[in-house]
Design a protein that fits this description.
The chain is mostly helical. It is built from two helices and no strands. The protein has one domain.
């Protein structure tokens, strides 16, 4: 259950980061550097979450497969 929530949150972070990145690159205002930093944080957080959750799911499936083979 929490893995699905984490993947949904990660997808939202990636979309928000992409939107901020597009906004920061298309404008030339004072806050553009802050938008770029926020975009980088959101994209990085989303991508790291996706990688960690996917790795956890594969690890859990491997454990389940070993338990099924033992019985």
């Amino acid at each position: 259950m929490l893995e699905n929530l984490a993947l949904t949150t990660a997808a939202l972070l990636i979309l928000a980061g992409a939107a901020l990145l597009y906004d920061a690159s298309s404008t030339q205002d004072v806050g553009a550097s802050y938008h770029l930093l926020a975009a980088a944080v959101a994209l990085t957080g989303g991508l790291i979450t996706v990688v960690l959750v996917t790795r956890s799911k594969f690890h859990w499936r491997r454990i389940q497969k070993q338990n099924r083979d033992d019985t």
